[in-house]
Amino acid sequence: MSAPRVRLYGRPGCHLCDVAREVVAAVCAELGEEFDEVSVDDDPALRERFGEEVPVTFVDGRQHDFWRVDPQRLRAALTRG
Questions:
Q1: Contact partners, residue 3, CB within 8 Å, separation at least 6
Q2: Does residue 44 have a cis bond before it (omega within 30 degrees)?
Q3: Which of 73, 69, 72, 78 is nearest to 23 (CA)?
Q4: pLDDT score of 48
Q5: Which helix (H) or strand (E) element contains residue 4?
């Protein structure tokens, strides 16, 4: 099984992260894609790297968005090809 194409970096208690998770989950479900989620608070290097820019989404290993996830933009990134 291959790794999910979408990764969401966030932190517990983050309202923007909750909203981003809903958008990512909906778009991924629509397109048959998987995503995973990583808490930046569990890793000092990630906390340093992303700071207050969470949530951050990556698609295919490249940073895609931060703070807000636009469903159309995410859909386009996942269907390019």
A1: 36
A2: no
A3: 69
A4: 96
A5: none
pTM of the model: 0.93
Number of separate helices (H) and strands (E) present in the chain: 3, 4
Q: What is the mean pLDDT of residues 31-41?
A: 97
* Per-residue pLDDT at 12: 95
Tokens 């397109």 belong to 31
Q: Is 11:42 a contact under the CB 8 Å cutoff?
A: no
Our CA angle for 59, 55, 80, nearest 5°, is 20
Asked whether the predicted pLDDT for residue 1 surpasses 70, the reply is no
Whole-number Å distance between alpha carbons of 20 and 58: 12
Q: How far apart are CA 64 and CA 74, in angstroms?
A: 8
